[in-house]
Amino acid sequence: MDGEQSHAAELVWLDPKRLRFFRHKGVLRLTVGEERSYWKVSVYRCFPLTDPDKYISVRDAMNREIGLLRDLSELEPESRKIVKEELERRYLVPVITRILSVKERMGMLLWEVETDRGLRRFLTRASQEGVEQPEPHRCVLVDLDGNRYYIPDITSLDPISFSLLKRWLM
Fold it and tell me: How much is the pTM?
């Protein structure tokens, strides 16, 4: 490699027994044992659809990964409650129950859908960026603001909804 060294990214597994998550003035904070404190952290699910309470990425204020938490259930109860609330806020994803209409306009799609949280209208790109299919029967629509709308099983949609969606699946 002509003098260059190759460095693989190392996973850092966090010891849940040493972690204390808490909020201060609405900001999520983390203390790791007696060694370190992070004044602002974010938590992300590595597998939000298939394993929502496992493999949680903890990141600092600069979005650098501090480490991974294997399972939320291993945290002490108060920290677990706070992290779950933070994840629920981050991953608040309406579930689409019916698609009423999809209209294409200048490379955008205007969706009108019914969700478990009521009627929604939003725009997506008319491309793979707007309609994702992480697994064969699941679908996620991502609007222009990055909000996600989830369809857990496209085959359970009514025939009209399915035909409106099918055109945009890649």
Answer: 0.60
